[in-house]
Amino acid sequence: IDECCVGTSCHEQSTCANSLGNFTCICNSGYSGNGTFCEDIDECEEEECHSSATCVNNPGSFVCNCNPGFIGDGVISCSDNCQVPYLFFSTSSGTFSYNTEESTSSPNMFNSRVNALLSFDDMNKRLYFYTANDEITSYNLNGSDLSTITIQNVEFFTVDGRNNLLYYHQRLQDRIFVYNITSTQSTQVGALSSVTGTKDMEVKNGYLYIAKASYPTIIRYNPRNESITPFNSTTGSAQSLSVDEYDNVIYWANYDGTSHRVMRTLLNGETVDLNITYSGEIDLTSDVFNFYVLVKADNRIDQYLKTSIEKQKNVTFNGPIEDLIIAYDEDECCVGTFCHMNATCSNYLGGLNCSCNDGFTGNGMDCEATNCSDLSCGQNQECVQVNNTFACVCKDGYEEPDCRPTTNCSDPSCGQNEECVLVNNTFTCVCKDGYEEPDCLRPMTMCNIPVVVYYGPSAINYQVTINNVTTSGSLGSGGAKDMNYDRLSRRLFYYVSGNFYSVEQDGSDLRDIGAVGNVDRFTVDGRNNIIYYINDLTDIISKFNMTNSAETDLGIRAKDIDMDSVNNYLVIVRTDSGSNIERYNVETEVVDAIKAGGDFPQDVSVDADNGVVYWVNVIGGSTFKVKSTSYAGVTIDLNITYTERIEIAQDEVYLYVLVVSNETIYKYRKNTWEQMGSIVVPSGTSGVEVAFDIDECCVGTSCHEQSTCANSLGNFTCICSSGYSGNGTFCEDINECEEEECHSSATCVNNPGSFVCNCNPGFIGDGVISCSDNCQVPYLFFSTSSGTFSYNTEESTSSPNMFNSRANALLSFDGMNKRLYFYTANDEITSYNLNGSDLSTITIQNVEFFTVDGRNNLLYYHQRLQDRIFVYNITSTQSTQVGALSSVTGTKDMEVKNGYLYIAKASDPTIIRYNPRNESITPFNSTTGSAQSLSVDEYDNVIYWVNYDGTSHRVMRTLLNGETVDLNITYSGEIDLTSDVLNIYVLVKAENRIDQYLKTSLEKQKNVTYNGAIEDLIIGYGEFHLKENKSIFKFGFLFLYQVAKKWSSHW
């Protein structure tokens, strides 16, 4: 008799070992006793923690926690937190420093670099400054070792001192690049090429943490394996972040569309709103005990205590503050990692002095003794004599620093798709993301969508996530006693009221399989059309042939069974054998043991692809532990324990645990066994199963190339794209010209998936509502720090004239109503007619650029903080986000023409067109690079745009059929552009110059220069009216001529 199988008097914290005619109870690790009684060993009475740590005993284990004010692993190291946090902030007067630990401290000028972006390399204790001349300067906190590098178009940056890298956000391309400080090479981070809307970054512990304007708002990038981990699902837009390496949390600023809120996110994704709210834009940083909030509008930095979230004090300045960072001046003597153990350390600013103690000689870094009695070696050290001197060296099996145990990732030999990680103080090889066992050679099945099915006597329900949308539902009426999924037929089988049934995953096609009595649990062998079940009266396994309804007993008693349809095994939990878990080969009928006896398995779930059995061990009837056993016989305790009955199921990535009494299914990630979420289930739910829906859109369908595939549970749909009609498997272009009405002076041109109304030769307009004759005078408007100027492009002797005094305005022209719009730094958008009449002003915050749709009285704008496109209704004064464009990020410019919104983007596709009528989006080209500016030519139906290829800025021309031509007009610095009927105008920002090119020949005609920076440019049209054979020019700004003369000194 296997007493361990039958049940013994062994303690719940012991292991039963069966032997011939006997058995032995052995207390588990961390416990002592005779096996029938086991008590916890207090390791804190025997183990030694660090001298600055406290030992905490836990059941079966212990932990060493560094004391408050110290950091480290608690065993080998607990470093005194000998860091003096200094707050650095940049202003228009220079960069200032502030000692946060001195209550009487006031800011001091640190250097004269104005409005610098800041970063601190805490590994090498270097401070970095990025200034407007594209220079990044760094040096030690004592001012030594100055170094300067040049990187263009940096919006913000962070330094990885460990790997000598500098990550920066490239403003023009809206992408993250990395600069290797050693090799001086700069490259885009390929794994982050799809990340847009980046607002801030920070490197901590080798990871790059990123704040984004869209979901997920906080992500972490691991450069070692190029994986990306999302951290939270909070709605809003992250604007700034600071990673707290001491408490393993992320503090960040969340803009919810109205206010800026300080949030705290744990590394498990749990996010808390700290109820610290500001109406205006904020930035933040943190040290060990505090976080600091820069309130930009108030030129103030508020200091909050992390533990209580109470405001402690603030630092104010008499001008705008650009950036802030915490840097640590290290008291090297406090850290104690530099001088010899037999030397005395004297600290001074930026350095230290080491002098050997009495009885020792040397330079302080190395002090020698005359005999071993003068030395006090550590626990893992021994005293040896070398060349007539005595020194403490590490014992065999230990290594510097601090004579730690010799363990590193060079021990395991990891495979091609594996990586070495530290698990429970042991280095081991695990599969990289995207690969799975065995041997990490097989990519995960990406086209399988797991469907979690939970059931009970009265109901069968499911939950599935498709395209990031989670839905729940019922699989018909009635319930089930037990369920099983057959991966070959992809059908769900269930047993209720003495009968087997099968059904599709969406509840359709219900089939009556056959009547069988007294079924407790069952599993399906779809390959051989067999159902194996356990008789609830005899506990004996029988098989039911679904073809002829024949039944056969296997003569094997079991508690639970599951089918491995990949390897053709029936996995059995035994109740009458010396083995706990066995495999039954359904072809050869040979049985072999997977796990020996000693436990009490209850529920089993087989991972057939990886040859692993997950099972529930019942201890004393009141403790339920999840374990796994491989086909090789290796059993692992997964540290998942409950005090109530549980049922389990699993998919490729997760293990699902149903706690029956809690009415909850908990989800655990297999590679880390971290709990990732839960599903609340109805009362009476008694079991859980996982089915797999094929994502037909992923596998490949018969959908037409001009249609979109939409996956659903158990099915898919082909939907013809906008501008096309058909059943989805066949789509043909709709000739909109047969249905749509153009202007009477326009011609309709049908394009694939769209149409356009072109005003006839000699007319201009949108082609739908208006086509005016071509008596238009194109005027070039451009804004500067002195105001906005106008320039008659048709007069060869023309010079710019002052139009108004609005400085550095963003410009837009409403061609429908002939109104000019100006957006200024005070968040006001002013518009009026070209003769200066009918002035109107509205207020919209955080506009980065905008364009006006005069036909529909709308104003589209890019919201700087949220990196999204909004629309303002000029009539109703309501502002809303454009829902159809919610996924569009990295927007660089926009323009409305003929009722369409054309958008320039930093990533592929670089040019898209949005149709507000049906909310469709049309991509226009796949040119590599980054679109920076665009101008839509409504006369020739082309788009002129600026492409930044990482080196130069090139003027491109794209037809509405997507054909793109490089015009070979190239500039090294940033440019902007606009166009009229005959010409293209290129603003060369670095040279304060606007170049004019003829569209037909692309030859440069002339240029307009200014003696200061030009912010923006736009073409506006004035009209000539012919009356009595005289040209009467009606352009109201002519009356400003006398005002303009006084400004002529600017040119």
From TrEMBL:
InterPro entries: 6-blade_b-propeller_TolB-like, EGF, EGF-like_Ca-bd_dom, EGF-type_Asp/Asn_hydroxyl_site, EGF_Ca-bd_CS, Growth_fac_rcpt_cys_sf, NELL2-like_EGF, NOTCH1_EGF-like
Superkingdom per UniProt: Eukaryota
TM segment ranges: none
SMART domains listed in its UniProt record: EGF (SM00181), EGF_CA (SM00179)
Keyword terms: Disulfide bond, EGF-like domain, Repeat, Signal
Any one GO molecular function term: calcium ion binding
Disulphide linkage map: 394-403, 431-440
Gene3D superfamilies: Laminin, TolB, C-terminal domain
Family matches, as PANTHER family: EGF-LIKE DOMAIN-CONTAINING PROTEIN, FIBRILLIN-RELATED
Designated name of the protein: Fibrillin-2-like isoform X48
